[in-house]
């Protein structure tokens, strides 16, 4: 309560805007996940690793725009590329040279030869699901309980914690994750636990010849951070292919945040399709689908029309090219790994010193603290994570000048290529204050 009072007192400008916004923006925000408690925060600008609210407050930005902030703010290479392109035209609905360069970069990094672009993670996974169905001529898809793939019908199933009767762990129920999704579409999405190959094998047997493919986050990142166990991703590929079904890695969140070639290169498992968005765009709206010669070749032959007025938008292409050539560099990954090593070591120690049960988990530039006494292997473990501390942690960080994603149980922080030791110092000092206040 004390931290919430401080929060509100520091931000009169946000409070007055929240009141005005409520009259014209539904719920006072532009996306339901922009709601923060005790009130929404209005930002004025960002620079480097920092963002600034309308009351002049400065924050180390570890929210990272829900994972789209790998470049940090106003990165010189992005500014230069976008300014150059904006003066030469913002939209043509025809491909540009940058689109070829970007596809060449992605093909090299992800080991998948053919690419198309779209405008969000949701569009990318929607196209991937359509394409798996079109290519195989089958309707059913398999998804993992707790994975989020955007807000289109086929994947809005069994996503968020505590949404309803989740059923037995080895045979999860298909739980609608949003209103407005017809039951007939939900029923086409079969659900399995993460890291459970047997469940996939069983579903493929039970629905022989009917499963188009499976979509999953290769590292789960909408349930904290849950890595795949050894052999899981490769095993999925083998199983699905043996049944004539396809594998899609949704790398919208992982992507360049976990390495130059995403989780795909990191684990050395080549799926049929990869979806990308947030991590590649330098903060611009973007999406991409890459795939094998066979499956994306089907698109090339007109087997599936992957379309969109703004696909391959020149501004977006210029920004992604700048990310590929100047942001997502070997040096940047080394710097981020060093900062994360500091964070992990310090947090482990702070949790122990203050008698709190929890574990920092990092993957590349992404990190979170999971308040549980054991590693989280799947969504069922994740449901047992103690959620009492996340909001308090968020408030302590916010009031201490660090902006984290507000949904602390599910979301991760993101280090950008512009964060430095001083930013990490501020984060760690706030964490210690939080741990001292709530710890035993
Ligand atoms: N896929 C994953 C793994 C995501 O985390 C998200 C968004 O959080 C999406 C897809 C949807 O992306 P967007 O919000 O750009 O539509």
Automatic annotation (TrEMBL):
Q: Describe the family membership recorded for this protein in Swiss-Prot or TrEMBL.
A: Belongs to the class-III pyridoxal-phosphate-dependent aminotransferase family.
KW Transferase (keyword) present: yes
- Does the keyword section mention Transferase? yes
Going by the UniProt record, its keywords in alphabetical order are: Aminotransferase, Pyridoxal phosphate, Transferase
Q: What is this protein called?
A: Aminotransferase class III-fold pyridoxal phosphate-dependent enzyme
Q: List the Pfam families hit by this protein, alphabetically.
A: Aminotran_3
Q: From what superkingdom does this record's organism come?
A: Bacteria
Enumerate the GO terms in the molecular function aspect.
transaminase activity
User: Which metal ions or organic cofactors does this protein require, according to UniProt?
Assistant: pyridoxal 5'-phosphate
InterPro entries of this UniProt entry?
Aminotrans_3, PyrdxlP-dep_Trfase, PyrdxlP-dep_Trfase_major, PyrdxlP-dep_Trfase_small
Provide the species name.
Answer: Acidiferrimicrobium australe
